[in-house]
């Protein structure tokens, strides 16, 4: 597993694109991405909702504390959003000791709200942990010990032995501790939302997903702020679901010229023979060549695997006995 952070825009795009398939109803999430190349007139034609109400704009750069740093603007129209972006695009900022330019923003509808909830799902070595609180929107990570004492934060853990059977194991009884303190009028809705988000978490190979906060709009959960990480080693099976996903560099990290050159070469590698068979070589150094030569010398049945002789020789050579 390789955990790679994705932008908030992509996290919400994946949630919107796949939530209905897994839950039966659609989340009315609206968001737009703004970069140096964005033409606001063209963007408004593509996303008409940008002209129909007040907006929120903030950097989408894989760092937090945007509000505290004066990088979030609320209740703006599109013209004011354009001014806000122009004043900050390309400007260097320092966040948690890391410096870098702001290159990407996310624009969303401004949603007045009174309720804020917290949801966090993390993939761990032995399973997944799910945390929920009806007191979202606070600095939960920085005040974790205080939160556990003073806030209604509920947590459950689902072992990896149950993850493949999540439809049957993630029952109402399993979810009950998460929503035990919620008022009855919203309890069922939020419980079903958590169930659907966890199904999406599993289906799309997220390794981390956080909504802090999400609120209720017309009785339905709606994420206001969201973070996500994907297992990029699962790209081979999710490329259609993920779509045009990007894995940006951590904020403040700049590739050297050599790294950029190698990255460019790596992007150009592709498979042109779909019927070909690829075998991951788990050896290292000269052992890799020895294992490969054993396959070639003793035979490899692409339908049934290595011959008995090849399996024996590979076993011996991998242990350094030949």
UniProtKB/TrEMBL annotation:
Stored Pfam families: Citrate_synth_N
InterPro entries per UniProt: Citrate_synth_N
UniProt GO BP: succinyl-CoA metabolic process; tricarboxylic acid cycle
Coiled-coil region: none
Ranges for domain ATP-citrate synthase ATP-grasp: 2-242
CC per GO annotation: succinate-CoA ligase complex
GO molecular function, one term: succinate-CoA ligase (ADP-forming) activity
Protein name: ATP-citrate synthase ATP-grasp domain-containing protein
Native source species: Hevea brasiliensis
């Amino acid at each position: 597993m390789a955990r790679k952070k994705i932008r908030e825009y992509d996290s919400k795009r994946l949630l919107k694109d796949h939530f209905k398939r897994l839950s039966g109803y659609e989340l009315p999430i609206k968001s737009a991405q703004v970069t140096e190349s964005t033409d606001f007139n063209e963007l408004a034609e593509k996303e008409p909702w940008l002209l129909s109400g007040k907006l929120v704009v903030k950097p989408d750069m894989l760092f937090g504390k945007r509000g505290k740093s004066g990088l979030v603007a609320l209740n703006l129209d599109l013209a004011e959003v354009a001014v806000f972006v122009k004043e900050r695009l390309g400007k260097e900022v320092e966040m948690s000791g890391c410096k870098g330019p702001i290159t990407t923003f996310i624009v969303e509808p401004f949603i007045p709200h009174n309720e804020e909830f917290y949801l966090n799902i993390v993939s761990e070595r032995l399973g997944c942990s799910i945390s929920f609180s009806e007191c979202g929107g606070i600095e939960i990570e920085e005040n974790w010990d205080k939160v556990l004492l003073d806030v209604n934060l509920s947590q459950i853990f689902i072992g990896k032995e149950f993850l493949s059977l999540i439809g049957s194991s993630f029952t109402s009884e399993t979810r009950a501790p998460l929503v035990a303190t919620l008022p009855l009028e919203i309890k069922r809705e939020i419980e079903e939302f958590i169930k659907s988000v966890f199904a999406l978490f599993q289906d799309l190979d997220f390794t981390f997903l956080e909504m802090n906060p999400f609120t209720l709009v017309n009785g339905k959960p709606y994420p206001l702020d969201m973070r996500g990480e994907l297992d990029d080693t699962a790209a081979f099976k999710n490329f259609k679901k993920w779509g045009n996903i990007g894995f940006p560099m951590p904020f403040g990290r700049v590739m050297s010229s050599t790294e950029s050159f190698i990255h460019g070469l790596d992007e150009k590698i592709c498979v042109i023979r779909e019927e070909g068979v690829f075998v991951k070589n788990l050896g290292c150094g000269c052992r890799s060549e020895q294992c490969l030569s054993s396959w070639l010398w003793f035979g490899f049945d692409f339908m049934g695997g290595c011959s008995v002789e090849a399996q024996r020789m590979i076993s011996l050579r991998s242990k350094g006995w030949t």
